[in-house]
Design brief:
- The chain has 215 residues and is mostly beta strands.
- The chain has one helix and 16 strands.
- The protein has a five-stranded mixed beta sheet, with no helix packed on it. A four-stranded mixed beta sheet has the order 1-7-6-3, with no helix packed on it. A four-stranded parallel beta sheet has the order 8-10-12-16, with no helix packed on it.
Length: 215
């Protein structure tokens, strides 16, 4: 059986019996990583979601499903199951910057670095991360700023702090570009979000060929 990543459900066991209902249970090699609804037969990860993309992602799960007759526990059947985790193309190459402090882009791989913010107040607010990105390649990699408001700020206004956007500053001496947001909660100790592109000094974020988007 196959299961697409980014969900908790691996498998649904089915059994028919004259003495319904049937009760399901798990055993086998990966049973400790899983959980099963004893009534519905739905098998899920005990914690988290399936992952295909991470280098250390577990991509094959093997386990046994046991179905027990409600009339007598002595009447049961066991099925060996192997589930292969498959790729979800929708998230290929996406890197969530939330909580990160430093990330390195993979050479030769198209990646999209995502940071969330909120421009509802008329200013771009975020405290999601203070992070540096090393190895970012124009024309290969992208920055994606995910605006929580119903109508996202335009890409052009995002570059203009006076129009409610972020403060984007290039430092030619350090060869960096810093994208700074305003703090979304000044009452807590979490600083305002800031993204630093190491090795790129471009306050237009690509100009006519932008390497950023606002969604």
């Amino acid at each position: 059986a196959d299961a697409v990543e980014n969900q908790a459900v691996l498998y649904t066991a089915v059994a028919t019996d004259d003495s319904l209902p049937v009760t399901f249970s798990l055993a086998g090699a990966d049973a400790a990583l899983l959980a099963i609804d004893e009534a519905s037969g739905i098998v899920t990860l005990a914690t988290g979601n399936l992952d295909f993309d991470a280098a250390d992602a577990k991509k094959v799960y093997t386990f046994d499903v046991k179905a027990i007759d409600s009339a007598t526990a002595l009447n049961s059947a066991t099925q060996a199951v192997t589930v292969t985790v498959t790729n979800d193309p929708a998230d290929d190459g996406q890197v969530d910057l939330t909580g990160k402090t430093a990330v390195t882009a993979q050479a030769g791989v198209k990646e999209t670095f995502v940071l969330s913010f909120d421009s509802t107040s008329g200013a771009s607010l975020s405290s999601d991360a203070t992070v540096s990105i090393t190895g970012f390649v124009k024309g290969e990699d992208m920055l994606r700023f995910d605006d929580a408001t119903a109508t996202p700020i335009s890409a052009a206004n995002f570059l203009k702090v006076d129009n409610g956007g972020a403060l984007v500053a290039a430092n030619g001496f350090a060869n960096t570009t810093v994208i700074s947001f305003q703090d979304n909660n000044t009452a807590d100790a979490i600083p305002a979000a800031q993204v630093t592109l190491v090795g790129i000094a471009d306050a237009t974020l690509g100009g006519a060929t932008p390497f950023y988007e606002v969604v």
